[in-house]
Amino acid sequence: MTYENESADLLALPLRKRIVFFGDSITDNGTYIRNLEAFFLKHLPEHRLEWINLGISSETAAGTSEADHPFPRPCVHDRLERALAETQPDWALICYGMNDGIYHPLGEERFDAYRSGVRRAVERVRGAGARVILMTPPPFDVTSTGGPALPAGMDDYSFERPYVDYNAVLDRYAAWVREYGEAEGLTVVDLRTPLGALIRERREADPGYRYGDGIHPNEDGHWVIARTILSRVFHLELERVPAWAEGGHSEFIRLVGERRAVLNAAWREHVGHTNPNKMETPPLAEALQQAEALLPAIERAALAEGGAESAEVGEWMGFACTDFYFGGRECIVVAPREAAPGRPWVWRSEFFGAFADADLALLEQGWHVAYCRLSHLYGCPYAAGQMEAFRAELTAKFGLAPKPVLFGFSRGGLYALRYTALYPDRVAALYLDAPVVDLRSWPGGQGAGRGAPEEWRDCLAAYGIAKSAPSPAEAARLAGEETERLLAALAAPARAGVPVLLVSGDADLDVPFEENGAVLERAWRAYGGTVSTILKPGGGHHPHSLPDVTPIVQFALAAVANRMQ
């Protein structure tokens, strides 16, 4: 299998998977797993994934336990072999650490036990043939604990009397999880960064905000966990909170919660565990039947609450807009007050709403503006396929013109170019603003630009290069080959007469023009295509667009007029 095919396999949403979760009381609570199942049942109902929650309260991977804990803490290794045999997972998500440090200051013996326990768990899951997905321990928020927190140097600590800076201990644990996961080629879901951001944002708005009890997050924290898993594991980027996850009355989420409660208890007790607190539950086979019997009611409730699309009509910058889901992805269509003949439209490939003066000017001219969130896919071929499905949906449902004008800003240029290369007969024109063209330049930072290391890792994964490249040099070489393939494929739209407007600053330190825009300009013209370039003297990467967007608007209007002749 080539790395390109492997990339498509990893990025495509699975139709069938059995996904098992191992963790402590945060996983045992099950709310984030409920949210994950709810998202798929609501917005991707054709994807029937099986979610098995084997989280156990108080559990560790390290086998550690504080002296005054009410009972010896359970250890996942006491049940892992049986759990894997009983569940036979395709994927396993592992989240430990909160309890493993037993609320003490950092100690090398405990840290070693944690690392050893996680490694053993990974090896066992891999040995069972499942994909391993590691999650970092979530934050410990001492402000929310409400009880005493002890300074360093005390004889003992516990979850009821934690070390005051225990969150710093978890920082070390999480850093190791990320390093170990990367070295092993595993997907790692960083929960600390988004949950930490949630705590800061909530507390800035309300100084009295409590992050649950400091250990266990509230409903909003569980949504952030689910959203982060959807991003890192399923490549679904979400900014909005679905109505069913906002905490109001939703029959749909109530029924999903009822289904999860039946399944969670039955699976945990069927597999068995060493926590002395057991749950009364019917045999697994009976519980599975009960859970299955709830699905028709869940489906009816989902339809009653907007169905897979869950379209909502609102307003953007004084224009009517429709927010909806398509293929599980957030989408938006902004409508003009009166549509121009032929119903032309701007397609933002990334960064909807940013530097939008040209978008607004074209809305005033009767154009629509549309966007489908495909962030963090870096314009890979899989992303282009998703884009084509979105375009077909808009032409069918909204009656928009079959050939949009694509606006590709920064990394959005990768999406616009890839789509145009693959579907040259479905693009009216390209407006590219400081576009990324060569992956090595950005995010790779292999040339004159600054680069972006985290995005570089994500980009290599999106293209399937990460698993195929044994060294950074090989990764850069493969990324270069990918760029050359893209440039070669642009011959088709250039020869088909797709016009390009290229706007860049000549002092861009993030996406240098000479390594990106100039490369595209030379290739497009070599293929006989038309490129109009506006180079801003002394201009950096920002701001995008132009102080006077008239040239952009005139370019779009002329391109569509020529296509209609």
* Uncertain residue segments: none
Structural class computed from helices and strand pairing: alpha/beta
- Spatial order of the strands in the main sheet? 6-7-8-10-9-11-12-13-14
Count of alpha and pi helical runs: 19
Q: What is the β-strand count?
A: 14
End-to-end separation in angstroms reads: 45 Å
Share of helix, binned: 40-55%
Overall pLDDT confidence: 95
Range of strand content: 5-15%
Give the overall shape, derived from the CA principal axes: globular
Radius of gyration (CA) equals 26 Å
Structure description:
The chain has 565 residues and is of the alpha/beta class. It is 42% helix and 14% strand. It has helices at 3-11, 25-29, 31-43, 80-87, 108-127, 166-184, 192-205, 219-232, 251-271, 284-293, 295-304, 357-364, 381-397, 412-422, 453-462, 472-489, 491-495, 517-526, 550-564; strands at residues 16-23, 48-53, 91-95, 131-135, 187-189, 312-316, 319-326, 329-334, 345-348, 368-372, 405-409, 429-433, 500-505, 531-536. The strands form two sheets. It has a nine-stranded mixed β-sheet, with helices on both faces. A five-stranded parallel β-sheet has the order 2-1-3-4-5, sandwiched between helices. Helix 18 (517-526) links the parallel strand 13 and strand 14. Helix 3 crosses helix 9 (251-271), helix 9 (251-271) runs antiparallel to helix 11 (295-304) and helix 12 (357-364) packs across helix 19. The longest helix has 21 residues, at 251-271. The model has no long low-confidence stretch (mean pLDDT 95).
